[in-house]
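Here is a complete protein record:
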Amino acid sequence: MNNITMALNADELIMNALKEDITSEDITTNSVMREFQMGEVELICKQDGIIAGLDVFKRVFELLDSSTEVSFNVKDGDFVKNGDKIGIVRGDIRVLLSGERTALNYLQRMSGIATYTRSIVDLLKGGKTKLLDTRKTTPNMRIFEKYAVKVGGGCNHRYNLSDGILLKDNHIGAAGSVKKAVEMAKEYAPFVRKIEVEVENLDMLREAVDAGADIIMLDNMSVEDMKTAVAMVQGKAETECSGNVTRENIERLKDIGVDYISSGALTHSAPIMDLSLKNLHSI
């Protein structure tokens, strides 16, 4: 994340996370560290994986004290190994102690997502299909989690409800039919917006193609039906498949021929990557 993105979109969220952890004071730190003392602490990797979120980690300490210095031996997207020393934080020891948990929470979560995403991207190598995330993100963590997906080699689906049109089952129910929903979306939305329609069977697929949908999501359909669906579309729309896609079952979808596979698991089920701040000492 660059400085502009951080200032416009992330700083307020990071501050809210810090306020959640420090409502009035860090009573533990203040009890053992009564005044300023310069110090440093090492950022240690305790698990192999893809690192993501270094700028966010750094920003936590900078928002507590702008004079804090954070340096890294790696960059986002690098593969790191258990035991690697990947950075050093220098500054007021009180800041290092008070910011530790929030900074690590971001870095561990984002690195876990990047690592999990990369493992699935690797399974899709050799084909045309791209891996997408979803809006199934942790509240107030979307900007960080979707960034981590990109670091891991995945692609972002729409960021939020203002970012694109996706007509799902309940939208179609509200409109009355696939055809009517697409017609209403085309009438309402700017022409630059693509219209995606979620379908659950081949009849809905035919209706979506005839209505002129730009992207068709094949939701929870069998592998056989999805192969048939791709053949029926014949390039008239882009295709996406979804529905409980995980690292364990994605290979069955690799050769279907869809343009995209979306997986909520990237952001809601990725385990954290184990990282730690160790060897704090005065300097």
